[in-house]
Every structure is written in structure tokens, then in C-alpha cells.
């Protein structure tokens, strides 16, 4: 937090002090403690979320549970480890207050529980706490009469180490240098699904046991790649679920001698691993009523069009959050030579929307009334992503923004000139382009707050510069003997 804070900006955008958060917890402590003790929990990991969306913690025994919930648990020098250099070694530590609506007993070891927490600094919300940024966006949406909901489609690749210590696909019985099927052998395949079931059964049982209403597991296009489809919920709970899911996936894989990677594009021939965000809105005063659905010919409301226009308006800056790594942009291309399953990637490359059009960034699906952003992956900080989606969509609704006509045709087959003539913008080609868009976007400054936005841009700019200075194998093969 900047040295002169809490400043006017913080007073305007934050709505709950440390003391208020503690008082919100106080009446619920006995109920939650009893639930955990009856489940056999002995150790609690109250976890805050760093700038990358990764949970951090210090385990405490159940004997300290009450103190933990009252904000008297472990403190953290967050600024010493989390890429947020705005505080010095002489400044106060951050204090976390667990959210008792975000309690997850660890299925692989029920003696442990994870409780997601919010960070505070000197009695005010810490302004480099991404979970607080989402709670602020939710609070603002409710003030406008809306509640945001979302589902996420997480994709990941399961790997293992071979005898030489090299990481290889965990479910791939084809010889590395032999004949391989040319066209997408793994996608939807029954044989490979059966081979994967020892791992998948454990995962399915866990998700079902947590009540997430798992719909299916998909063997995706790349070898050893999977997608999980489970039910939507409010944006904060969905963000907590995704943060916990990343932990669950890694722990289950370890029990099978494997590991999970969320890297979007591990090799040239792989399909990209995405994490599409499907967002919808409900009226606060009319729970259960989807704002994006009406009785028109298309079934889609004016609010849905205005909301997608808001998302399109800020698409480049949003992509800096939803596709936050150098590697993310290797997947946002229309075609790849030597691709498993053909050459078309099915990845978004242009900022437009269409009805069930998977070549557009924003899809209005035929099976549900939500706005699907296809330019997202599992390396994102999902809390910041949800906050930005919600705020941008509401800006579109508030200003009745026009998204233009839908693009219900194959965008991959259009030439650059045709796209230009149609007024269709290209998604950022690199992390550098996306970060520059984030730098110029005023709404991003509001969603993240100026301190967190600057910290995020500083880290990601450094990431780009370090990558840009690296000499890759491709460059050596391409240029070393050519010139």
C-alpha cells in the first residue's frame, strides 16, 4: 500500500475495514469450528492470494482457530515475496482475516482444511489483495442492482518424468519416435479415457464429494490433456473453487506418480490449455432470473449485447489478466503446422462476438445464456479476471454500448485486410502488447487500483524483458548457420 494510504482512492473503493471483517466472522466461529472438528480437521491453512493468483499460507492448529478468525493469526510480510515492491522492510506486515464462507476440507487428507482469506494492512484492506479487488467489484455491482455469476472450463495436461528425468505426457502410449495417429487420437477417445480413469476416478469422486455438480470430464485434443465441466456459482465462490481446484489437481496427480501443468502451450504440437470464463448476471432483487435471457427472437436480451460490448471495449486489457504469461500468446493463433488434429486451433484471435462461434473471442453459446470469453487460461489470477469481467460488462450495460453485428462466420478464413475492413480488432499478439493495453486502460486502474495495477505491470514487463533477452532453441536452429 502506498505510504500515504489509506488515501481518498482507498476510502472510495473499499467498503469493509479490518474491524468490520472480524465482526462479520465473530458470530459464525463456533458453528464453523464445530463443523471442522467433527470432520476431523486438526490443521488449518488460512490462505491469501498473491498477484499470480496462487494461495499462500502458514498452517495453524485447530487450537488457534478462534484467534485466526479474529484476525489474530499469522501475519505476513507479503511485500517481501509477492512481487509488490510498494512497501519497505520498515513497514507493517499484512494481516489476513479468513472468510468463513470459503472453507474447504482437503479431500486427500481430511486432517487439513484450506480457508481463503482477505488481506488487511493497518486496519484497511491491503490494496494489493486480488481477492479484495473482486469483493469490491461485487459490492459495486450490487449497488447497481446486479449479482455476477460465472463458470470456468479448466483445461490442463497431466505429465510424468521418464527414466531419464525428462517430463513426458502421462497418458501417451505411442512411441516418441514411431508412427503416431495423424488426427487427434486423444480427443474424446474411449480407449485413452479408460486408460486415464485411475487418475480421473479419484478426481471425479473428490469433486462430486465437494458438491460442485461435476457434469463431465473431457479427454481434450492434446495427448494427456483434460477439461473439467462443473456447475456455475457466484463469482467469488467460483474464484475460490478454481484456486482450490489447482491445489486438488496437483495433489491427486502426485498420488499417481504424476504432475499437472497449467502451462497453456507446453509444446508446438499441443492444443492450448484454456480456462474459458462463462459469465452471467442476475438482478439482485430477482434472484434466479438471468439478465441475459429474454423472450426475443434470439432469446438474448439487450443487456447481453450491452455487456458484451463492454467486454469488447476493454478486451486487450482484460487479456493481460486472463492470458498473463509469455506462453499464453503461443496459443492465441488461428493455425499451427503439424498440429495434432489438423491445423485450426479453435483458439480466439480476434475481438468480436458471435452466436456459438468458437473462432470469436466472445461466444454466446447455444446451450446456455452466458457470455463466454475464450481468451483465458489457467495461469490467470482468476479473482482479478472476474473483477474485470464484471466491471466491464456493467459499464457496457450502464452506457448501453453497441457491440455491432455478431460475426457468425469463420474468422480463421478471413484475410487481414478483410478483418480490417470489417473493423475487427486483433487480440494482443504478445504479452508486451497486452501489458501496454492494460497501461492505457482507465477501467483497469479502477478494477485493480493504481498500486496493484502498477505492481502487476512492473512484474509482467520484467517477465517480457527477460523472455525477450533469452536466446531460444528456435533462434539457434533458424539463424546460427543461415547467416
UniProtKB/TrEMBL annotation:
The keyword Transferase does not apply. One of its GO terms (biological process) is glutamine biosynthetic process. GO terms for molecular function: ATP binding; glutamine synthetase activity. Residues 130-483 form the GS catalytic domain. SUPFAM superfamilies: Glutamine synthetase, N-terminal domain, Glutamine synthetase/guanido kinase. It holds the Pfam family Gln-synt_C. Residues 39-124 form the GS beta-grasp domain. Its cofactor is Mg(2+). The keyword ATP-binding applies. Keywords: ATP-binding, Ligase, Nitrogen fixation, Nucleotide-binding. Belongs to the glutamine synthetase family. Catalyzes the ATP-dependent biosynthesis of glutamine from glutamate and ammonia. This is Glutamine synthetase. The lineage of its organism: Bacteria, Pseudomonadati, Pseudomonadota, Alphaproteobacteria, Rhodobacterales.
Amino acid at each position: 500500500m502506498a505510504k500515504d494510504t489509506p488515501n481518498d482512492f482507498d476510502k472510495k473503493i473499499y467498503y469493509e475495514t479490518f474491524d468490520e471483517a472480524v465482526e462479520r466472522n465473530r458470530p459464525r466461529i463456533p458453528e464453523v469450528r464445530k463443523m471442522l472438528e467433527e470432520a476431523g480437521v486438526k490443521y488449518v491453512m488460512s490462505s491469501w492470494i498473491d498477484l499470480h493468483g496462487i494461495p499462500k499460507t502458514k498452517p495453524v492448529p485447530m487450537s488457534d482457530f478462534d484467534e485466526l478468525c479474529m484476525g489474530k493469526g499469522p501475519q505476513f510480510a507479503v511485500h517481501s515475496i509477492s512481487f509488490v515492491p510498494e512497501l519497505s522492510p520498515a513497514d507493517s506486515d499484512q494481516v489476513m482475516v479468513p472468510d468463513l464462507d470459503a472453507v474447504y476440507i482437503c479431500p486427500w487428507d481430511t486432517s487439513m482444511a484450506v480457508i481463503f482469506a482477505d488481506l488487511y494492512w493497518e486496519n484497511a484492506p491491503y490494496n494489493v489483495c486480488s481477492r479484495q479487488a473482486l469483493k469490491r467489484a461485487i459490492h459495486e455491482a450490487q449497488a447497481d442492482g446486479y449479482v455476477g455469476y460465472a463458470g470456468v472450463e479448466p483445461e490442463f495436461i497431466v505429465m510424468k518424468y521418464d527414466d531419464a528425468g525428462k517430463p513426458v505426457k502421462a497418458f501417451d502410449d505411442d512411441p516418441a519416435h514411431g508412427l503416431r495417429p495423424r488426427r487427434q487420437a486423444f480427443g474424446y477417445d474411449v480407449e485413452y479415457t479408460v486408460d486415464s480413469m485411475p487418475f480421473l476416478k479419484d478426481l471425479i469422486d473428490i469433486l462430486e464429494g465437494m458438491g460442485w455438480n461435476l457434469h463431465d470430464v473431457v479427454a481434450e485434443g492434446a495427448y494427456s490433456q483434460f477439461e473439467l465441466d462443473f456447475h456455475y456459482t457466484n463469482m467469488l465462490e467460483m474464484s475460490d473453487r478454481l484456486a482450490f481446484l489447482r491445489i486438488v489437481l496437483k495433489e491427486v496427480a502426485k498420488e499417481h506418480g504424476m504432475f499437472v501443468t497449467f502451462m497453456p502451450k507446453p509444446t508446438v504440437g499441443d492444443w492450448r490449455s484454456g480456462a474459458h470464463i462463462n459469465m452471467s448476471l442476475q438482478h439482485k432483487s430477482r434472484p434466479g432470473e438471468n439478465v441475459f435471457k429474454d423472450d426475443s427472437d434470439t432469446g438474448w436480451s439487450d443487456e447481453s449485447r450491452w455487456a458484451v460490448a463492454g467486454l469488447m471495449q476493454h478486451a486487450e486489457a482484460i487479456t493481460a489478466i486472463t492470458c498473463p504469461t509469455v506462453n499464453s500468446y503461443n496459443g492465441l493463433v488461428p493455425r499451427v503446422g503439424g498440429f495434432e488434429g489438423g491445423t485450426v486451433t479453435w483458439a480466439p484471435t480476434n475481438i468480436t462476438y458471435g452466436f456459438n462461434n468458437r473462432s470469436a473471442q466472445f461466444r454466446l453459446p447455444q446451450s446456455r445464456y452466458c457470455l463466454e470469453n475464450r481468451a483465458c487460461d489457467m495461469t490467470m489470477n482468476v479473482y482479478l479476471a472476474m473483477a474485470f469481467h464484471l466491471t466491464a460488462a456493467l459499464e457496457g450495460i450502464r452506457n448501453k454500448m453497441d457491440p455491432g453485428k455478431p460475426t457468425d462466420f469463420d474468422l480463421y478464413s478471413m484475410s487481414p485486410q478483410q478483418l480490417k475492413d470489417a473493423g475487427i480488432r486483433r487480440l494482443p499478439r504478445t504479452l508486451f502488447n497486452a501489458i501496454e493495453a492494460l497501461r492505457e486502460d482507465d477501467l483497469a486502474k479502477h478494477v485493480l487500483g493504481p498500486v496493484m495495477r502498477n505492481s502487476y505491470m512492473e512484474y509482467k514487463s520484467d517477465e517480457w524483458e527477460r523472455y525477450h533477452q533469452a536466446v531460444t532453441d528456435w533462434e539457434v536452429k533458424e539463424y546460427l548457420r543461415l547467416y
